[in-house]
Each structure stands twice: as structure tokens, then as C-alpha cells.
Amino acid sequence: GESVGLHLPTLSVQEGDNSIINCAYSNSASDYFIWYKQESGKGPQFIIDIRSNMDKRQGQRVTVLLNKTVKHLSLQIAATQPGDSAVYFCAENMESGGGNKLTFGTGTQLKVEL
Amino acid sequence: DGGITQSPKYLFRKEGQNVTLSCEQNLNHDAMYWYRQDPGQGLRLIYYSQIVNDFQKGDIAEGYSVSREKKESFPLTVTSAQKNPTAFYLCASSTGRWETQYFGPGTRLLVL
After folding, report:
1. Which residues on chain A are in Cβ contact (under 8 Å) with B108?
2. pLDDT tens for each residue of A73-113
3. Contact B98 A100 (CB under 8 A)
4. DSSP per residue, chain B
């Protein structure tokens, strides 16, 4: 079936380096994607979103890239800080049963080393 | 201070007991959702509601029930029929169906 997957379960980066978290999707009809950050024991926090008519969107220290040709989504975090340590997961808006639904990936654990 | 609140933060359930998790939002969002999160797994949709007095089953609705009597509130009841209720439960809301969802802080349910 259709699914949202992440390439790496854990990513370790040095403080100050840039982080890149990847997400693959399989439904070419998906038109909306969201990145969330979840700290331990807390609810997911919205980071940034992108619609399928865009290739790139930038926020504060974060950039999301969408490559529809290979069905790939990435989240780039510039100058990674200890406070960025969390699980990051993407969500995909896809058709399901005549309607739309958000499907969430399992997440990537980002660890920032001092 | 707008947002989504969930209570309690921790909830303990005895065998055969029904428990209710609270979710309130003051964002004036029409749609609300309940998800279950297990370790190492993605969020799984339990129930969702697009408008007051209307709700639909998600992917894992068995053993759960909901109500939507007010726009601001979407309580979830974990019934005794749910045999594996231990999980982290997350409530979310959005302006419209499947638009950006904003999450509450979660309730961790444990079985005694």
C-alpha cells in the first residue's frame, strides 16, 4: 500500500552543522506535505509545510525541498543547535477511500552532539 | 493564549474500566482528530470530526468512542474492549479537513 517512509531512523550531527532529514513517499497524487518536530513526551510541533506546486520553501533556519520526480522530501536545518534534538517526521496528504487523509511517517531521531 | 489542551497528562486504567481523555481547543478549528502513538511507529488515526455532532472512524477505531457536542471539545473514551490501550494519545485540530494539524501535549495511558 501507499506509505510515507524515512531513510534513517537516527541522525547524529555536530552542533553548528547543517542537518538533512529525508522522507520518501510513494503516492504521486499527494499534494501537501508537513514536517513535524516531536520532543520526548510532548506532542508534535508544526515546523513547515509545502504544497506540490512548489519545490522549495524556507522558514527560520529550516528549508523543505520537494522532488516530485523521485517522490522525495527533505528537511534541512541550518546551524543545528542542541534544542533541535528531537524526532522529526513528515506527513503526506493523500487520497484514501474517496477522501483525503494525512499519513505520518515513523520519524527520524536527530541527536545533536556538542 | 490559544492552543490545544489535553488532560490528564498521565492516566491509569484498571482492567475492564472505561476511561475518557479530554481534548479542548480555542483555535476556532472545525476539524479535530485523535491519534495513537506507539514506540517506533507512526501516528495512527483513531477518530476524526469535521464538524459538531459528526465524526468518522479512522484506521483503528475498535475499542474507542468519541463525541463532538461542542466545537471546542472532542473527548475520547477508551473502552474495556480495547485490549491493548497502553500508548501515547494525541489530539489535533485543523481549520479544515486534512489541512495543517496542530497537536496537543498528549496523554499517556497506562494499564494497572
Report:
1. 41
2. 999 999 999 999 999 999 998 766 556 678 888 889 999 99
3. yes
4. ---EEEE-SEEEE-TT--EEEEEEE-S--SEEEEEEE-TTS--EEEEEEEETTEEEE-TT-TTEEE--SBTTB--EEE-TT-S---EEEEEEEESSTTS--EE---EEEEE-
